[in-house]
Amino acid sequence: MDHWKFITVMVTVFTFTVEIRPMDSFLTAYLTGPSVNISLNEVSNVFTPIRIYSGVIGSFLVFLLSDYLRYKPVMILNGILGMVAYINLIDSPTTFQIMVTEVCFSLFACIEMAYYGYLYSKIDDKEHYQIATGFAKSGMLSGTCVAGLLGQLVVNLNNRNYSVLPYYSLAFVTFASLWACLLPSVGNSKTSIQVDDISSDGFSNAAIRNPSIPNYSATGKTDTHNVVPSAVLFNRLSDFRHSYADRTVLMWSIWYVIAMAGFTHISLYANILYTYVVDVSGDKHVLLNGLVDFLATMCAAVSTYQIGKVNVNWNYHGYKFLAFSALMLALLLSLGYFSKNVLVVYFMFICFDTIVQSVFVIAVSQIGKQLKHNCYTSVLGFNAFLGIVLSTCLSSLLVHVGASLPVRFLVYSITFIILAIVYGCAAVIFAAKNISATRRFSPLP
Fold this sequence. Notes:
Radius of gyration: 23 Å
Shape: globular
Oligomer: single chain
């Protein structure tokens, strides 16, 4: 087996098992049920914001430390955080235990970018990035798919008893932690900061020497061995500046940040919206949250796997693709505001999850193709950090003004409409420039 295929399989197994957490689909139902018995308002306005605020700190730490720690320890930590979270949910948890759980869930969710950092640091040929990302993301979504189906079966077979779900989740995240220990370590050679890696203009020669990065020259010394620890931060900031100066990185990053903010909010509040809609409509049938997560992630897993193999000139079609995707997401999120039928809301989430996860695969792989080996989590993690910060700011504002759950979904729908308009305008401008350039250089008759 080729080395890149072996690494992809190892990471995919990890992402699959770490996502089998059947408790997540029914967390709100469990917390508001007889075992814990807290109100829906407390879940929405007290405990869930803790997860959002902690996410800002967690994503910043992941963005700052993952490249330095070389990814593998961060992935092991991910499993340990999951273990702590589900241990605290076993037997009627106290308010403090629920808070600890929310913090662990927040940090747990922030570490996803480290998976891709590890994957890209172990794969030399950047042409394999998109398909490797597709496999890893499909594994992650397949795990969530299994978790949803398992959770639904357990709930139905146990007469809507949610208290056994933490045990199942704990078992799988424990296995994922052990599997992460078996992953090949990432060497430190790529992160050594050297004297000649810093040029006089403040940019990193290591990045400039990388021939795979467009518009970078292939000049500079390559045989120096003098490590300068004090230059680590300066070198990283220089590479950072180079990365975001690339139009491709900037184009996909802006969309990713805003979409990540929406995805974070929708993922956290979807289960709460289900319970809210059922209460408002008076429909007391059994919640199908697990089945919906199964269908959503199954569709997303198939979509991300297939889109990982698609060969498209994203530099040419990127703006149009992102504009259309944002418009579709906006129309779907509007259903969360206008519909009072839980089945329609379920449909909304399935389609939303499928589209946004698929676009994330393309975005992450396109950004990764432009980056140095030691910048993956710095840039990808920083994008995730900005997305969570944006989500936190909007969530805090909406909680402060007392916006209802449907109104929050309407706000994000409007946000995606604005994003679609911006990228639609950019697509028109880009197409006009291409037409102008084609006419300018076309041979005269």
